[in-house]
């Protein structure tokens, strides 16, 4: 996916979409491609662009020296969707001579160590985020057999049903005609723990009181 001018709103929108499932713009570790896009963006994206903002803050957490040490990468910018230019090779005949001994190797090792520590810290932080629990709000219509059914007792029986992930809420009686009322009762369930079919079956087991159970409203929370 090529990204347009990230100084424009459209380009930032494209960048946010591009980074929705990516930690970096090229590969699995930060590279010069991140530096190029980071410098083009210039400032932290708006909070309405969460993926781009997360990526920008991550790249900004590194020092300029650390960013300079990153390897090349493929930029997604449409104006330059190719590997960022490598530093020009020295024309000196003594290219193979290491004038600084092992100093550069030590600096590269230290930069790599810092990068790994930052990546590990970021991974640990993400792993500690609490998982989102999917819940639903349900409005049930519990219908009696006739107008002689003890509706108060019916409600008490319904509320005796206990399941992990089930929470009963408010209730009321609603006229349906011929002096008969139905019980409307709210409940909230955790989707992974409570089966709606099983819940309605349990209510219908009070067969001396309950004729049928219908779902009047079902909403994801």
Automatic annotation (TrEMBL):
Residues 135-221 form the Translation elongation factor EF1B beta/delta subunit guanine nucleotide exchange domain. It comes from the Eukaryota. Pfam families: Arc1p_N_like, EF-1_beta_acid, EF1_GNE. GO terms for cellular component: cytosol; eukaryotic translation elongation factor 1 complex. Residues 92-108 have a biased composition (Acidic residues). CDD domains: EF1B. Gene3D superfamilies: 1.20.1050.130, 3.30.70.60. This is Elongation factor 1-beta'. It comes from Bicyclus anynana (Squinting bush brown butterfly). The gene is LOC112052290.
């Amino acid at each position: 996916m090529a990204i347009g001018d990230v100084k424009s709103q459209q380009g930032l929108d494209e960048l946010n979409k591009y980074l929705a499932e990516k930690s970096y713009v090229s590969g699995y570790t930060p590279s010069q491609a991140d530096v190029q896009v980071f410098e083009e963006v210039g400032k932290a994206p708006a909070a309405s662009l969460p993926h781009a903002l997360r990526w920008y803050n991550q790249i900004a957490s590194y020092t300029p020296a650390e960013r300079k040490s990153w390897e090349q990468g493929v930029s997604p910018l449409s104006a330059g969707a190719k590997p960022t230019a490598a530093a020009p090779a020295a024309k000196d005949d003594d290219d193979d001579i290491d004038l600084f001994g092992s100093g550069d190797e030590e600096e590269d090792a230290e930069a790599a160590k810092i990068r790994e520590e930052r990546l590990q810290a970021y991974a640990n932080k993400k792993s500690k985020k609490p998982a989102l629990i999917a819940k639903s709000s349900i409005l049930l219509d519990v219908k009696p057999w006739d107008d002689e059914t003890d509706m108060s007792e019916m409600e008490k029986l319904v509320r005796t049903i206990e399941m992990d992930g089930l929470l009963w809420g408010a209730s009321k009686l609603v006229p349906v005609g011929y002096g008969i009322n139905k019980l409307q009762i709210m409940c909230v369930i955790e989707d992974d723990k409570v089966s709606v079919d099983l819940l309605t079956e349990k209510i219908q087991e009070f067969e001396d009181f309950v004729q049928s159970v219908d779902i009047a409203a079902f909403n994801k929370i």
